[in-house]
Amino acid sequence: MALAGRIAYNVVFNAVAKVISTALALVAIGFITRYLGKDGFGNYATMLAFFAFFNAIGDLGLQSVTAREISREGAKESHIMSNVLTLRLAISLLILVLTPALAFFLPYSVDLKFAIIVAALAFVFSSVSMTLNGIFQKHLAMDKVATIELGGKLVQLSIIIIAVQKDLGFMTIALALLSYMMFNALAVFFISRNYFSFSFQCDWAYWKGFLKQSIPLGIASVIGFAYFKADTIMLSFLKSSADVGIYNVAYKVIENLIFFPAMVAGLVLPLLSRFIFTERAKFDLIANKTFKVFLVLVVPLVIGVFSLAPQIVGIIGGAGFPESAAILRTLIFSLAFIFFGQFFNTIVVVSNLQGKLMNAFILAAIINISLNLLLIPRYSYTGAAFTSVLTEMVVVACSFLIVYRHTHYRPTITNLWSIALSGALMGLYLWFFSSLHLALLILGSIAIYLSSLWMTDAIEKEEILQVLAGSKFARNNGAIVE
Fold first, then answer.
1. Residue 240 included in any domain
2. CA geometry: angle 267, 392, 65, nearest 5 deg
3. Per-residue pLDDT reduced to its tens digit, 292-328
4. Among 4, 248, 275, 369, which residue's beta carbon has the most beta carbons within 10 A?
5. Number of domains in the chain
6. Is there a contact between 7 and 475 (Cβ–Cβ < 8 Å)?
7. Is residue 446 part of a domain?
8. Rounded-to-integer distance, Cα 29 and Cα 27, Å
């Protein structure tokens, strides 16, 4: 299959699989919130926050740098992956060993402490699958990863449903996360063997050189955690589990939409990496079209979620979380900034400027932690939500300045007013017909937005292909030709 066709297939397949996986995740959250209530769901959200914490400190920037390095021409794929996977496993096992000591000193219930240890074990398996994803990314086989993740979600959801129906308690819900990660890691590992030969390798000199490149990004990831997920942990320290639950019903919606920018950025990263230093015109073209795709996705997401927040919260949390609707309306703006932060951060990575992100993330973390300490005691989850939006805004501004200063790139967008008009028409539909059934509101708003984009020529088929295929490049006997 030609390069353009392979990338287009991967995008479509991943989008469909991710939408289904997101739907399954939201169904699972619906079961959990109704079964555990505000306090129990708050404990579950705290466990997931620690899982994210382990992922942040255990990544060390290895995933992004691995995807970049194996995409280079002439890269020794097996050597790179064997060393990185061995290194990642060693780090993950160290975190697992240290976690019980950490949990012992935390001011939580015994069940929650054990759940945090389960999260650490789940992280070990997660680290394996995340590291190996770079192989599938390079070979344009992310459809396999999406299929595996979908299967894992089905396993997790099945365990959650059984736990709820048989009243098996909080710990069984926690173990569902471990089962999901185990399934993903084992499946990804065995399928990845079709692409490279793996062996445990401890090339200390290589590890040192690789870590020198990745650690700045890894530290940035840890600092990024401080403003992306620490709000939940801080809420769990400063407020009740019920407050954590209310906040995280809304936050789960945002978390399950973040895959959109990550998916697109992951698919274009190899192309951006290939052209950033060799063919700047092609890089600019792909980057501009990617930015436009992000904008086209952000507009309906913000308008739709803001308008339908009460209905969305009602579906996910039931009648027990009405306060979460206002939080969701605030947090949806943080998602908009996350989109563009992901875009500029991807350019930072492919430009080998990841060290420059350090100061930006430190600033964001300081702002986030300071505002949370100031606002959470007084405004609880509302203060945490506003802090999240302001922090993401700072990250986008800083990452853009890094990109512009060091690469002189800034996005050029065509048909901006057409996109804005399409969003406005969608918003008017949701406003005037708000009494309709939720399914009709969603389908109608999507139809209006897409129809308006098409009628105003806001985005054309050729532009999508340029994003997916690197300016309509096709692989011809191993060479990229226009």
1. yes
2. 35
3. 888 888 999 999 999 999 999 998 888 788 899 999 9
4. 248
5. 1
6. no
7. no
8. 5
